[in-house]
Amino acid sequence: MAEPVCVVSGVGPGTGSALVRRFAAGGYRVAMLARDAGRLADLAKQVPSAKAYVCDVSDQSQVDAAMDRVEREMGAPSVLIHNAVGGGWGTFMEIDPAMLNRNFQVNTMGLLYLARRVAPAMVTAGHGPGSRAKRRARCLCRHRCRDRRALGPRALQAEARRLLYRARRDRRRSMAPGRSAPFGMVVQCRGQAIRGNVVARR
Fold first, then answer.
1. Distance between start and end Cα atoms, the chain
2. Among 11-25, 113-127, 132-146, 180-194, which range has the highest average pLDDT?
3. H/E/C letters for each residue in the chain?
4. Which of 80, 135, 144, 147 is most deeply buried (CB count within 10 A of its CB)?
5. pTM beyond 0.70, yes or no
6. pLDDT per position as a tens digit, 122-137
7. Domain 5-200: what homologous superfamily?
């Protein structure tokens, strides 16, 4: 059976790359979405199970085109991580409305475009929230469950949290002392919505 597919959007040099490496190490084939073709190509050379797809997630037509390729070349995703994020700081009098709108398009609409695209196939395949109690999911992280026994929803959540925590830890360790960076993501994993290290039950 082919390894499951994980889609990671917003693959940059920090958190995005850490997520790609962590899920690849956990036995996933990873579809990497980002605007920087050069960075994606470099990372694809370092992670054999990852493939690059140039995409601006704020553009629905680009999302649809990229996901068409992902599904054709890798198969239907079972995990979606929306890591693409825009940000800005300042008071409401200082923030440029155009910048805020751009962030909304990336942070919120990008997630909506991706989630609406992958959710139907997840539900059909038995990965959606309607089937959590009926099916047992495959192990998320192969190196922690060497016999690859099926895990129930609670154990699956724990494995997802471990992977996300380790990606965050990898990101922190790669940064220069004294620097900090926001870490925010939404993960669609077998119907579980995961924000950072916190799993929100539906």
1. 29
2. 11-25
3. CCCCEEEEECCCCCHHHHHHHHHHHCCCEEEEEECCHHHHHHHHHHCCCEEEEECCCCCHHHHHHHHHHHHHHCCCCCEEEECCCCCCCCCCCCCCHHHHHHHHHHHHHHHHHHHHHHHHHHHHCCCCHHHCCCCCECCCCCCCCCCCCCECHHHHHHHHHHHHHHHHHHHHHHCCCCCCCCCCCEEEECCEEEECCEEECC
4. 80
5. no
6. 888 775 543 332 232 3
7. NAD(P)-binding Rossmann-like Domain (3.40.50.720)
151-155, long-range: CB < 8 A, 24+ apart: 153/190, 153/192
Q: Which residues pair with 81 in a beta bridge?
A: 8, 187
